[in-house]
Amino acid sequence: MYSNFRGKDDLFLAVREAEARRPELRRRVAEQHERLLDTVGGLLEEWTVRWDVEFKLPAREVVRGVYAISRGMGLEALLADEPGATGTEQFEEMFLAYAMGLIRARTAAEAPGKERLP
Question: Nearest-CA neighbor of 105 among 89, 88, 117, 92?
């Protein structure tokens, strides 16, 4: 496979250019991605019960946003002029701003059977 390209970079660019040209492959990848969002979203829903919070969006959409931030930051790191220019501190700040903006405390009426501290 690599013998057709000068290296991984050229392979990456070729795959990137061809991604909209294979509808069947796109459909299969999209189905896998949606299953992943369902699985991780379900896990996040379980955690919100434990943390006694809720998200302003469905959990699977919160996960979709986290993945988008992750992929975007990964791409930015690949394209940065200097190594470490988009470090983990920036990712943490962006992730926390995103997540905290979507979290709100669950009220006692929304979480029956759970005692809340005053």
Answer: 117
Residue 117 included in any domain: no
Q: Which two tokens stand for residue 107?
A: 């009220």
Name the pTM for this structure.
0.67
Is residue 78 assigned to a domain? yes
How many domains, in total, are found in the chain? 1
Residue in this structure with the two tokens 């998200």, named with its chain if needed: 55
Q: So what's the pLDDT on residue 72?
A: 86
Whole-number Å distance between alpha carbons of 55 and 46: 12
